[in-house]
Amino acid sequence: MTAFHLECGGCGNVTQAVTGATVCGDCGRPLLVRYSLGEMDAASVTAAWSRRRPGMWRFRELLPLRDGEEPITLGEGDTPLLSLNRLGTELEGVRLLVKDEGRNPTGSFKDRGLSAAVTRAVHDGAPALVIPSAGNAGAALAAYAARAGIRCRVYVPEGIPDGVERRCRAYGAELIAVRGLITDCGRLADEYATASGAFDLSTLKEPYRIEGKKTMMLEIARALGWQAPDAIVYPTGGGTGLIASWKVIHELAQLGMVEGRPRCYAVQADGCAPIVRAWKGELDEAPEWKEPETRAWGLRVPRARGDFLILSALRESGGGAVAVSDAEMEAGADDLARQEGVNASIEGGATLAAARSLASTGEIRAGETVVLFNTGHMLTY
After folding, report:
1. Are residues 314 and 320 in contact, defined by beta-carbon separation less than 8 angstroms?
2. Rounded distance between C-alpha atoms, residue 371 and residue 260, angstroms
3. What's the CA angle centered on 25, arms 191 and 39, to 5 degrees?
4. Would you give the end-to-end CA distance of the chain in angstroms?
5. Which ranges constitute the DSSP H helices of the chain?
6. Above 60 in pLDDT, residue 350?
7. If pLDDT is split at 50, 70 and 90, which confidence band does 244 have?
8. Taking 80 as the threshold, does the pLDDT of residue 213 lie above it?
9. Which of 8, 129, 215, 325 is 20–30 Å from 353 (CA)?
10. Are 309 and 243 contacting, i.e. CB atoms less than 8 angstroms apart?
11. R_g of the chain, CA atoms, integer Å
């Protein structure tokens, strides 16, 4: 396995202390995993990836595993990259693809991040785990905690869909309903972690969920013959997957393994669009969105801890941010199902709505390859 250390995504502080890592001790911002890429031979690495059995852990040279460790896995990853032939013709010559993350073990992309985070937490000796969630992350943690044989608690906002509660309880999680928003759940998870010693796996309060989620882009690049798509459209709540996609493109470029870099587009609900507002205002951070309102629970995030990393990825890539209505998201999910057979969550439908908007303004163009991220199955809620 390759050696790794941690670096603050804000102030750049470097630490070799990777066990039980949370956030930067100097500025409190998210830590990012850095690998010894100069020690890798690209040809040897890609050959190893081809020999291994399917799943995201085939990419272990770019994942946080030490020598002799095995991952906590349920077979996540290697989800299909599907051509949207009918919907693509609507966008006048755009090659439209969807990364269908609903095929993961608990039905969403959260499985990748939680597989990596639970793996690292268990090997680092965490006695129990806790997470705030609006749905899919809670179910994923519950499943991977069960797989690891470790206790977990999930804080969810009151009023979440019944399917979320049923999935968390089915895997044996202790579920706590909170009167408030996901930010209130995060505060309570932090308090519980402090009082009990449980490890807090909140978005970007530990560095390893990013590492699992970046394997989506690794698989996309591999499927496209190590050619990056021209653009990606990502449903952005906490934004970990978008940050992860941009991070791994840099890692692959440093290894000389990928051609090109994609423009990154964040899509949010028009009733909760702090990143879009900050993008349009040319801000480096995204102030909290007051009174968020959307039926897309995964996008009901009024303040993202990694807002500055999201906005940086949008700027560096030459992409942008767009808000769509709940009605547009639902229409997008319906079209993905009826016209292409893709069981998309409302957040996945948001990416199609955003692609339509971006095509109408000329930001994505004929001849380009554009990847939409369907982050969950329609039945996850």
Report:
1. yes
2. 14
3. 120
4. 37
5. 42-51, 85-90, 110-123, 136-148, 162-170, 182-196, 209-213, 215-223, 240-254, 274-280, 307-317, 326-340, 346-360
6. yes
7. very high
8. yes
9. 215
10. yes
11. 19
